[in-house]
Amino acid sequence: xxxxxxxxxxxxxxxxxxxxxYAGRMGALIRTILGRHQHAKLVAPLAMSGECRRMxxxxxxxxxxxxxxxxxxxxxxxxxxxxxxxxxxxLRCAAALRRRMVIGTTGLCQCEASYARTAAQRIGILMSxxxxxxxxxxxxxxxxxxxxxAGYDFGIVEVHHRNKRDVPSGTAIALRHCVESxxxxxxxxxxxxxxxxxxxxxxxxxxxxxxxxEHRSTTRLHFATGAVEAAVLLCAIGxxxxxxxxxxxxxxxx
Length: 254
Ligand SMILES: NC(=O)C1=CN([C@@H]2O[C@H](COP(=O)(O)OP(=O)(O)OC[C@H]3O[C@@H](n4cnc5c(N)ncnc54)[C@H](O)[C@@H]3O)[C@@H](O)[C@H]2O)C=CC1
Ligand SMILES: O=C(O)C1=N[C@H](C(=O)O)C[C@H](O)C1
Fold this sequence. Notes:
The chain is of the alpha/beta class. It has 2 domains: about 15-130 and about 220-250, NAD(P)-binding Rossmann-like Domain (Rossmann fold); about 135-215, Dihydrodipicolinate Reductase, domain 2, CATH 3.30.360.10. It is about 40% helix and about 20% strand. The strands form 2 sheets. Strands 2-1-3-4-5-10 form a 6-stranded parallel sheet, with helices on both faces. Strands 7-6-8-9 form a 4-stranded mixed sheet, covered by helices on one side. A hairpin with a 4-residue loop joins strand 8 and strand 9 (about 210-215). Helix 2 (about 25-35) crosses helix 9, helix 5 runs parallel beside helix 6 (about 110-120) and helix 7 (about 135-150) runs parallel beside helix 8 (about 170-180). The chain is globular, with a radius of gyration of 19 Å. The protein starts with a helix and ends in a 6-residue tail after the last helix. The structure holds 1,4-dihydronicotinamide adenine dinucleotide (NAI) and ligand LZUJQKHR.
């Protein structure tokens, strides 16, 4: 069974989505997935106005960068893969209109993340630096390994493409959070270059052996597919702040 299918069978109508960051790398994949999705439909592409002109010469239906309340209110949820400032703009709008929100954008400051926690009292929010199901399982695996290798030293290495803006990656920060329940002060090494989609490795370093658990992305498809399925699931549950594990209903590792 595909993820989200069970929950969707309880909904009579398609899940309608706005997409902030429509013209970006993630946006391009998400709109392709939504174009052929059985239960979810893109109703409001949100992009910068300059990008509209580049992507669609002539009359353009893509909305400009300001949060257009009318546009967002036509959807059940806003999916956001953009920039933190843009995220906050749409989050405020979604909270005011009581529309759900998937925040995939990384690099939010503490104050922005804490606003999301407050907004989650009014609406359902999925906030995840990595919407891939594979990476969600990888995180669970690392949390489990951290307990097994509690006496070892931990470290994280992440590698991303040269255009990534935030350092360290949101996934690396989330991984640190997973393993820090066992050990504090875990350092993250970041590398930027080429077209690397996104690789993360967690090192468990003992006196005479090293265990490395690694995840490599070969394309962005798994981020985008997971995000769309998570948006569908989010529309079937109540208010609150969720992570991927929560939305997918995965119990914690043994
Ligand atoms: N959660 C996840 O699984 C993943 C998260 N990301 C994160 O998603 C974000 C976007 O990543 P990419 O698509 O690679 O970046 P990108 O730079 O290709 O796309 C971002 C897009 O947002 C647009 N944008 C900026 N301000 C806007 C506004 N006010 N209104 C509408 N659009 C606006 C930009 O013009 C750009 O087209 C980054 O923070 C990245 O770290 C990326 C991959 C996976
Ligand atoms: O910007 C990216 O590309 C990615 N960002 C996310 C992050 O910061 O962890 C997820 C993925 O690694 C790709």
